[in-house]
Amino acid sequence: MAKPTQDRNFQLLATPITSIKGVGPRVAEKLARLGVLTVGDALYTLPHRYEDRREFRRIAELREGRHEVFAGEILACGEVVTSRSRRGIYEVIVSDGSGQVGLKWFHYQKEWMSKKFTPGRKAVFSGEVKRFGATKEVHHPEVEMLAAGQSLADYRSSDPLAFGRILPVYPLTDGLSQYAARKIWKQVVDLYAQYVESSIPESVGSAQKLIPLAEALNYVHWPPDSADVERLERGSDQARRTLVYDEFFFLELGLAMKRQGVVLKPGIPFKVGHKYTRPLAAMLPFRLTGAQKKVLGQIKQDLMAPHPMNRLIQGDVGCGKTIVALMTALVAIENGTQVAVVAPTEILAEQHFLQFRHWLDRLGLQTVLLRGKMPAAVKRSALEEIRAGRAHLVVGTHAVLQEGVEFEKLGLGIIDEQHRFGVRQRAVLRQKGMNPHILVMTATPIPRTLSMTLYGDLALSVIDEMPPGRTPVETSVIPEKQRDRAYDLMRRELDKGHQVYVVYPLVEETEKSDLLAATEGVEYLKNKVFQDVSIGLLHGRMSSEEKEAVMTRFKSRELALLVSTTVIEVGIDVPNASVMVVEHAERFGLAQLHQLRGRVGRGEAGGQCLLIKSVKCSEDGNKRLEVMKRTNDGFQIAEADLEIRGPGEFLGTRQSGLPDFRVANILRDSRILEAARRDAFQLIEQSKGLLSPEYDLLRHELKHRWGQRLELASVG
Ligand code: ADP
Ligand code: MG
C-alpha cells in the first residue's frame, strides 16, 4: 500500500531543521523566527525574489529600481561628512570601464570599512540601483572582494552557489546572511524536495497542467538558467502555480468535506405551514424586499430538506437581516423546536431580545434572554425554562453556548455578526441539539475570494437590496480644526428633532484614556456647545444594565445625543438618528467606519456621516477616509480594505479562521483559488466524500494537512 511510504515522507519532512549542516542552535533560533522549524517548513518558505547572476551587468547598463549584480574596480573610497546631516556617509566609487557607480553606506564601522576597501581592488557587488541626479547609486550593497590577483573568471568558478545562475533571495532575520540562508536552503532542497508528493488525482492534475511537487519546489528554489525571472517574481510560472493550486486544493477539499459532513447528517426536516410567519407578515409595518424574499425562499428549501441547513446570509448594514432571521425562527418554532440566537455583544443581544420578544409576544410565544452576568435565581429559572422547552426562543451572548445551557429540543441556531465569532461557535451550537439547522449572518461585506475561504463550508445567500425609503448617507471628512462645521450640522439636525451619535475610538495603550476622551467629550458638548440638549454616555466599562438603560433612553428619544466609545458599532437600530460623528476617524478601520455609518440613514431622517480627522493622520488613514467619502457600497469598501491592509490583517484576528497560506496569496492567486474550489467540491460530490479505496491516499493526506481542524468539523 502507498500509505506507509506517504507516512514515511511526512515524517521525513518533519525532520528538525537542526539536522542540516550549518544549522546549530543559534541559527535554528533565527530560522524559528521565520517559522522554519523543520525541513518541510524550509521547503515551503519560498524565495520572495530572485537575483539574476547569470551574467554580471555592465555598469553603464544598470537599470534603475532593479536589483543588479556587477563587478568592478574601486576608484576611490572614504568617509564623507555632510554639514547638514553631521553624520558620516561612507562612499565607494566603482568602475568597470563602461561607466561608474557610487556605493553608499549610512551605517557602518569606519575602521572596518577602511580596511576592506582600497583603491585598485576588484569586487563583485549587488544591490538595488537608485538614481541620484545624473548618477546611479547603490545603498548598502552586498560586496564580495576578489583576492589580490584573482581574475573575475577564477572568482566566478570558485563559488558556483553564488554566480552564473539565478539565485533565490530568502526572507531574512537579523544575523542570518543571504549567503548562509542559500547554503541552508540548498541542502534542504537537494535532500528533501524529492519526498514531497501530492495525492491530487491524476485527472485533476493534468487538467490543471500541474507538475510534480518535487519538481516545482526545485524550480522555485533553484530556477534553471532557462527560467524567466520576471515571471518567477510575478508568480505566474507553472511551478509556483502548481504549489499554489496544491495548497488551495487541499484547503477547499477540507471545506468541501466539512460541508458534506454537515450536509449529509440526518437533520430535522421542517414543514413550512406559515402558522406564525403569515400572522407576522400581516403585523409588520412594511413588506419584505425582493432580496429578503429570495433569501427566505432559499432558507425554506434548506429547512425542508432531510439534512441540516448550514447557511450564511451576507448583507450590508441595514439591509434587514433580522427580520429574515425572525421568519426562519418562526418556522423552527412552528415545527415544535427551540431557537437559539447568539450575538457578539450584550447590547446587541439585548436589542435582538427586545425585537424578537416584541413579535413573539404577539404570537403567544416565549422569549428568554441569557447574559453573562445575571442574578443567580433569574438565571436558574431561565435555564429551567430552556431545558423544559417552554422557552421558544433564547437570545444571548456566548452565554448561550456555555455548558449549563441545555435545550429540550434545539432545532435552529442563529449567529449574528459571524465575523466576531470563530468557526468553533457553530460547532458548539450544533452540539446543543440533534444537528440543528444553522443560520449565520454577517454585515461584513467580504470580497468573494476571501469569503470562499473563510466561510467555504457554508451555503451563501446575499441580501443585495436595501429596504425602500433609505437615503444614502452623505459622508464628509472634517479636519479637527474645523470641528465647528460639524457642530453646526449637528445643531441643525437636532433642531429638526433628529438624533445624533458621537463616537470615540478605543485607545489601546491606556485603557482609561478612551473613556477619558469620551467623558471629556461629553462634558465639553454639554457645557460648551449643546447646553440645551439631553446627552448620554455609553462606554465599555459600564455594566450591561447601565448600558441598557442609556440605550433605552436614546431609543425613546429621551436622549437626543449619544456619546459613545465603539460599543455601538454593531447592529444598533435607531431610525430617528440622522448624524454619525466619528472622532479621530483615521484610527478606525474601514469595516468599522462602514458599520458606524450604517447606524444612520435608516429611516426618513436621512443620514450624514462626519469623519473628524486629526492633525496627525497617516497615509493609510487618509486613504481610508477617502474611500469612505467615495462610496457607500460595502463590497467596494471591503475590496479597498483588503487592498490597503492585505489579506492577513483584513479580518484582524486568527479566530476568523483564515488559514495561513504557505505559498498562496489570496489576492494575487484568486483565479487559482476559484479553480481549486470548483475541482475540490466536484471531487467530493462525485466521490461521495472520497469513499472508495482509490482515494485512501488523498484522504490520508487531507487528514494530515488539516489535522485538528478537520476533526473539530466532523464533531459538529
Ligand atoms: P441589518 O441587516 O443590519 O441587521 P436590520 O435587520 O437591523 O438590519 O434592519 C434595519 C432596519 O430596517 C430595521 O429598522 C428594520 O425594521 C428595517 N427593515 C427591515 N426590512 C425592511 C423592509 N423590507 N422594509 C422596510 N424596512 C425594513
Ligand atoms: Mg443586524
Give short descriptive properties of this protein.
716 residues; alpha/beta; Rossmann fold; 4 domains; 7-stranded parallel sheet; 6-stranded parallel sheet; 21 strands; disordered C terminus; binds adenosine-5'-diphosphate; binds magnesium ion
Radius of gyration over C-alpha positions, nearest whole angstrom:
31 Å
Describe the global form.
globular
Q: Biggest sheet, strands in spatial order?
A: 11-12-10-13-14-9-15
Distance between the termini: 32 Å
The CATH architecture designation of the largest domain is 3-Layer(aba) Sandwich
Tell me what the structure shows:
With 716 residues, the chain is α/β, with parallel strands linked by helices. It has four domains: 3-50 and 168-236, no CATH class; 55-164, Nucleic acid-binding proteins (OB fold (Dihydrolipoamide Acetyltransferase, E2P)); 277-463, Rossmann fold; 474-631, 3-Layer(aba) Sandwich (Rossmann fold). Helix content is 42%, strand content 17%. It contains 27 helices and 21 strands. It has a seven-stranded parallel β-sheet, with helices on both faces. Strands 16-21-20-17-19-18 form a six-stranded parallel β-sheet, with helices on both faces. Helix 8 (213-221) crosses helix 10 (238-263) and helix 12 (290-304) runs parallel beside helix 13. The structure holds adenosine-5'-diphosphate and magnesium ion.
